[in-house]
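Q: Can someone sanity-check these two? First one:
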Amino acid sequence: MRTRIRHFRKQRGLTQTELGLRLGTTAATVSRLETADMTVSTGWLERIAGELDVGVRDLLEAPAESSFAVTGEVRRGGNVVALPEPVSLPPPFLSLAHEPMVFRIGDMPGVCSGGAHAAGDVLVADRMTVAEAEGALGRDCFAGGPEGDLAFGRLALLCADRCLLMPPESGAPPREVLSPSWIAPVVALFRNYPAVRKMRPGR
């Protein structure tokens, strides 16, 4: 299993010998751990994470091809559609979710650009079962139905047989998903702001 031990060790300015001393082992063992020449057990990960002051999940390196692709785009009325060309996010952006799903906000008239959501925003959601999502009432969520239908909005009602979502734009009718298969509360929002045009002296 590949890890990011070397990345964080160098970021902390430690040599393999120094990290080995902190862990009570040798530089050779640290080298083998970094290059996946030996199995990295949960115990090792926890000890190394503690010394490098990072989470265990941060040490686990996902292959480049597993960078998470945006699942779909939110359109008017809380409709969610698949993107023809997925947009990828690197794994560190997904660390707040146990089962991450990624969506992008599309152009939705009626949604204030300075509000909670704006066109181009990328949302990371944490997929969970309906029973696990009881505490998500009142939060922005995605919901998936048994036929693969998707909806987005503020979770207003959640039962085993249906859920009700209030779309982000004003005046839009609530979205109902019957027999939801899963609920994914939004746990992170990433937004790019317009670049500031540099003013030249004397202008």
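And here is the second, same format, sequence then tokens:
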Amino acid sequence: MITALLGLGGLLLVMIGAGIGTVGRWALAEHGPRLLARRLPDVDLAVVRPWMTWTANVVSSFLLGIVVTRLGAATGGAGYVFLLLGTGLCGGLSVLSTAAMDVVDLVRRGTASIALGYLMLSVGVSMAFLWLGLVIGS
């Protein structure tokens, strides 16, 4: 009975964290291009939108590095914080499927070289920021 309640509590924490992360990613994708367009009126919002996903993935990787360093394979209360922040928040903030669709959209627009650069930068910079988060967290 206790194990089931603890499992349910963990599930609830993941759901809360994922909800917060997902709303953050949505807000960045929805409002980021508009904020940028205010500063740079000549910017093409269709070109900017994939970079909002990229930003969310990089920020999520950085935060995950810090969370993993600080909490790692923690148990007890710290394990629940990891579920909230690492699995939930960072998982909701980052999204591979949207990044993949961004690549497809860029290819369909006839910008295959930009799509390839976007893909490589997404993976490379996200991993670099994960490492940076690990270094800063330790």
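A (reply): Looked at the second one. Residues 2-39 form the longest helix (38 residues). The chain has a mean pLDDT of 88.
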